[in-house]
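Before relying on records like the one below, remember that each one covers exactly one chain. Contacts with other chains, cofactors or solvent are not represented anywhere in the record.
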Amino acid sequence: MRNLLNPKWLLLLNTLPLVLLAGLCYGQFTVIQSLLPPASLVLWQQFALALAGLGLSTLTYALVQLRRGRPVEWVYSALALVAYTTFALLYIGHDSEIVPFAVPRWMVPTDLAIYVVTFIMPTLAHAMFALVVRLTPADRSHTAALNFALAFAAPAALYVLMWLPSTMLERFERSWEGPLLAVLLISCSFCFLFFLVRGAYILAMRRAEDAELHLLWKVLISLVLPMLGLLVNNGFLLGNMFGGSGSHDRGVFGNFNSPWFYALAVLNGLLLCLPDSPDRWRRLAVFLGRSVLFGYTFYFFIVFLPFLPLSILAVILIGAGFLMLAPLLLLVLHVHELAADLEFLTGFFARRWLRAGLVAGGLTLPLIITGQYLHNRWVLHEALDYRYTPDYTRRYHLDEQALARTLNVIKQHKERANDFSSSHVPYLSMYFNWLVLDNLTLSDDKITSLEQLFLGAAQEPEYEQPQWQRFAGNERPGNASGRPALTSLTTRSRYDARQQAWVSWLDLTVANTDARLSNGEYSTSLELPVGCWVGDYYLDINGRREPGVLAEKRTAAWVYAQILNENQNRDPGLLSYLDARHVSLRVFPVAGNVARTTGIQLLHKEPVRLTVDGRTVLLGDSSAQPLARPVATPDQAVVYVSAAAKKALPLVQRKPYYHFLLDASAGQGNGKAAYAARINRHFAQEAATAQARFTLVDAYATPVAPTEKWQEQLARHESTGGFYLDGALRQLLFKARQSSAATYPLIAVVTDSLHKAILGQNLAELSSAYPETDQFYVLGADDSLAVHSLRSNSRAGQMATSQPVLPVPVRAWPDVAHVRAYLPDDESADIVLNEQQVALPQPGAGTSRWQMGLLLHGYQQWQAFHPEATDEQRVPFVQASFRAGILTPFTAYLALENEAQKAALRRKQDEVLKANTALDLDESTEPAVTEVPIDGGASLLLAAGAALGIRRLRRRKRAGVS
């Protein structure tokens, strides 16, 4: 431990943590500064200067001592203890003024006081250890028993002082009561920890004088106390007292139920208790083993470091509170044993190699954990890619068991800590969330979907009505009959000759139908015609017109939800896509009889007709001549084909063929044997043709080769996971879109239960792959044949009265000889991808806004068939949307009340854009909680610390009554 006197430790344990603390605090300050009153700004400045003064003073002292070649003096250690403790206490005392309660908690997800305590604690711990070493010279005789006696005298003294008769403290002014009790608590805590560490240090130095006593206390510190601590924390001992039973993966201070914690505790204790061997090779092996397990000892020291100031209260109020001190004592023992090994081995090996072995050993456990988490990340992201952004040209095969373990860890981390236990592993859970989940989360719905897909879990998803239908007509679940409604709708249209497109505004006025309703939310949806883009948005807030901020969609929705949960009557408005054609509008709050006004700008090439909450409006001049020619982007990659231009295209009839998707999932069992008979009863002639195709569908889609018999391949097929019908349909439609043949598939799904299938709401974004018909058929176990839609409500079907046998005519683009796409023969316009690859617009591209919108929506259509490009191209796509000001399915318009909300939006958006697109910001609309190590299970001990405050309040109450 004498190496702690090296001034280099100050750079690691003081300068680095303070720099991190300053960065975290500055990041929070930049978000909330516009909400802070002048008094709070002054406090921020004062504490920043104080922190900078402390940090620079320590850094200067460390550099001077290094230059002089002198160790850390005891005077510095004493001053550091006083100065940094005073800073922390003053900060905690002014915490509610530094970040007032008026600042929404979601903008400051972690209490800054926790940051201050966490990052100052290494300085205090080093100062304490350095003071112990300085005041315990090795050339003098010291008594360990006396130090232990003095250590445990401190809790006794504090216990007496805590329960002094109130009359003995009434001689002090009331304003002195709090500081007096704080000084008593801190002084007794420092004395307790100082003499405890000093006693352990003295015992470690006497290893050669009394071997039996040395071995006895090593067994106690390295084996008995750690094992007792794990058993108590996990609820196997004193379970009723700590609210645990040992039957669940929870614990008072965190989830240490893994067998590895017990195994490493035993191995660490055995290595530390081994007698010193005179054989250099055996001693080297022990030294390397102790180096590896030093990471285990140091981890638990870091975990309990924030609780050390409360340890004296734990000893007083909780019978087993002394177990909190085991990591501290174990660290003293472990460091001393390593120092003794190093000193012995220096006579046989070069010191630099021994130090390299020490560093390598210390990094072993962290690297093993990091490697495991990286594997978890790879497995999870492969599963997410396959489920949400697959490459349809690639064959996937995942490690299902590794995925199951990863999902179990994620579910444990999602459990909220309560007052008595936590399912999180301190620090490691944070590291896992950062490395595996990019500091985001995975919603329960997605976890269930992955388990059902790859593990064949039995959960049956409930049918969910499409969002655009749930929001249509403002029919949102839970709204009262007097919900906000549209009271006025006006339009403004002008033709922009420069971009040769219409620019129209929808101005909506909403109000409560019941004036008694407070804080209501108006919401609706509208269907946009093809070739119509959202180009701007506003919301009137506090008498001013606030333009919407175009942001990443998930971030905007998350910020909107946080504001709604503030209950402070803030004013957000949100405009975003629900699916490929429908946009959602939400405005909050609509209170009393006060009307709210909001507006949407639309860019459209031709006059269009829209319906908003049952009101139909015409945008543009209906007397204008129809657009008879297609309009393309400058690079000709995307083409807008108007209804009139489409009528001029040649009509063709493609030949249909049946494609059977057979449920081959693990849950289907023996039901697969009856498929042949059912298909023969309904599709005997169609299935017998050479053009018919069959695909076996479980977690993966396995096409049956035309030369093979599907019955034989189905019989020998090894089923994996659930019935992933959504993925099979997408792969089939992708191949149909890519094919240049004049044929198209009629899809028939054969399964015993469509309810167990993994199937989304619809596949409307792939509609260009099925221009003839959006219908597919489901042949059920009861021999029923139902027809379903690929375009909407894919799970909802109706009994089929007939099978389509006649080809449906479609339009060929651009002509029959050079077909690039087939368009439905209807009265609506279409967007056509004229090239196989659609590139995103580059900054400074000289195109009109309408043409930019055409390119963005064409790229979105291309990306629907190439989801593997989503992660790589998502950020450029979002940035292109920002530059053009055009709303896309990846972005949203958000109107915010103040600059702090906008700063929080930008901070969260930067975090989201760096993460996997399939990850979630939060489980639901509830505010997100950022877990920190001191959060989980800490309230049990913090309640003990609150005993002093409760006593003080009682005395004040009695004084007030008298």
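The first helix runs from residue 8 to 32.
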